[in-house]
From TrEMBL:
<comment type="similarity">
    <text>Belongs to the short-chain dehydrogenases/reductases (SDR) family.</text>
</comment>
<dbReference type="InterPro" id="IPR036291">
    <property type="entry name" value="NAD(P)-bd_dom_sf"/>
</dbReference>
<dbReference type="InterPro" id="IPR050259">
    <property type="entry name" value="SDR"/>
</dbReference>
<protein>
    <submittedName>
        <fullName>SDR family oxidoreductase</fullName>
    </submittedName>
</protein>
<dbReference type="Pfam" id="PF13561">
    <property type="entry name" value="adh_short_C2"/>
</dbReference>
<dbReference type="InterPro" id="IPR002347">
    <property type="entry name" value="SDR_fam"/>
</dbReference>
Length: 259
C-alpha cells in the first residue's frame, strides 16, 4: 500500500534506537523527509547512515535533548513545519515509588508528558493551516494496564494520554490526527533493562525472568521493532485520517480486557 506520504516532513524524537528508530525507518521507506533527534550524536549518526543505506536518502540529524527548551528549539529550527510528529522518549527508570523523590517525578513528567505537549503546541497550528497533520505519541501498555514497578511511567504517560483525549477532537476537522501507540514487550534495550531490574528485585536469574515473560505473551514471543514501525507509519498515512484520539495497544494480545 502506498501510504501517500512521499515528500512529507517528519520529526521523530528518540530516533537513534528502539521503537523510535523503527518508526523512522518505516517512514523513510515511504519517501518521508526525516528529521531525527536523539541525545547521543554518535548513535544518531549511525542510525542516519543505516537509513540512508536502506532508502538512499539520509535523514537530517539533530543531536539534542528535547526535554529541554534548548533541545526543542534546535529541533524546530531544523524543521519548523513538520507534517508528522512522532513524540517518543526513553522511559523513566523502574523502581519502588517509596524510594522516588520529587526530582524523579519532575524528570519523568518532563520527558514523557511536558516535552511532547510542548512539541505539539509548537507544530499543531501549522498542521491545521496546511490541512494535514499526523501526531503519534509513543506511550506504553502501562497506560492501559499499569505495572507497579513502572510508577513514573504510569503517572507521566497517563497524564499525556488525558491531555491528548481533550485536544484531539478539536483539530480533527482540519485533517490533523493525534493518536497514541502503546507498545507491550518489544525486543529493545528498554525491555532488557526492565527485565534485569525485575530479576534483581525478585532475586531471580535474568534469563529465567525473560523466558517467563516471553512465554506469558499469547504469541510466545516479544514484538519486533519493525512491526511497531509499520503500525506507526500507517497512523501517519493519508489513509488514516479517520483515526484519531485512539490508544492503540501493540502487545501481542497480552492485555486481557474487552475494552
Amino acid at each position: 500500500m502506498d501510504l501517500g506520504l512521499k515528500g512529507r516532513k517528519a520529526v521523530v524524537c528518540a530516533a537513534s534506537q528502539g521503537l523510535g528508530k523503527a518508526s523512522a525507518m518505516a517512514l523513510a521507506r515511504e519517501g518521508v523527509e526525516l528529521f531525527i533527534a536523539a541525545r547521543r550524536r554518535e548513535v544518531l549518526e549511525a542510525t542516519a547512515d543505516e537509513i540512508a543505506k536502506l532508502t538512499g536518502s539520509r535523514p537530517n540529524t539533530i543531536a539534542a535533548d528535547v526535554t529541554t527548551n534548548e533541545g526543542r528549539d534546535a529541533l524546530l529550527s531544523a524543521c519548523p513545519a513538520p507534517d508528522i510528529l512522532i513524540n517518543n522518549a526513553g522511559g523513566p527508570p523502574p523502581g519502588d515509588f517509596r524510594k522516588l523523590e520529587r526530582d524523579d517525578w519532575i524528570k519523568a513528567l518532563d520527558g514523557n508528558m511536558l516535552a511532547p505537549i510542548a512539541l505539539i503546541k509548537a507544530t499543531l497550528d501549522g498542521m491545521i493551516e496546511r490541512r494535514f497533520g499526523r501526531i503519534v505519541n509513543v506511550t506504553s501498555h502501562a497506560v492501559k494496564a499499569p505495572v507497579a514497578m513502572l510508577a513514573l511511567s504510569n503517572g507521566a504517560r497517563t497524564g499525556l494520554t488525558g491531555f491528548i483525549a481533550g485536544l484531539c477532537r478539536s483539530v480533527a476537522e482540519h485533517n490533523v490526527t493525534i493518536n497514541n501507540l502503546l507498545p507491550g514487550t518489544f525486543d529493545t534495550d528498554r525491555l532488557k533493562s526492565n527485565l534485569a531490574a525485575l530479576a534483581k528485585n525478585t532475586s531471580r536469574d535474568a534469563a529465567e525472568v525473560t523466558e517467563e515473560i516471553r512465554m506469558a505473551n499469547p504469541t510466545k514471543r516479544f514484538g519486533q521493532p519493525h512491526e511497531f514501525g509499520a503500525a506507526c507509519a500507517f497512523l501517519c498515512s493519508a489513509q488514516a485520517g479517520y483515526i484519531t484520539g485512539q490508544n492503540i495497544l501493540i502487545d501481542g494480545g497480552a492485555y486481557p480486557g474487552t475494552f
